[in-house]
TrEMBL record:
One of its GO terms (biological process) is response to ethylene. It comes from Actinidia rufa. InterPro entries: TMEM222/RTE1 (IPR008496). This is RTE1-homolog. GO terms for cellular component: endoplasmic reticulum; Golgi apparatus. It comes from the Eukaryota.
Length: 97
């Protein structure tokens, strides 16, 4: 009997998130999303420049605020203004060799 490769993968990444967790802007939960917020003054002059972050499967924002520094669940420049949700099934299918 072969071990299930998917169960091993879930153990490696600590799979504890719900499968279809909804986006909840009131609680700042954006599962599997890329999030964006404008930068004060700079975004007023050049609207497409802003600050980006990545979200885990449980919706927690990972904000790369500086070299060797990651803010967890605290977006540096304010609330999320835009988000793009990524289809994780397509990402995992394309990432496998």
């Amino acid at each position: 009997m072969e071990p299930n490769p998917n169960s091993e993968h879930h153990l490696m990444i600590g799979h504890i998130a719900q499968q279809n967790m909804p986006i909840d802007p009131r609680r700042a939960r954006f599962p599997c999303c890329i999030v964006w917020t404008p930068l004060p003054v700079i975004s007023w002059l050049v609207p497409f420049i802003g600050h980006m972050g990545l979200c885990r499967e449980d919706g927690v924002i990972l904000d790369f605020a500086g070299p060797n520094f990651v803010c967890v669940d605290n977006f540096t420049f304010g609330a999320v203004a835009r988000y793009i949700q990524i289809n994780k099934e397509k990402v995992w299918l394309n990432a496998r060799f």
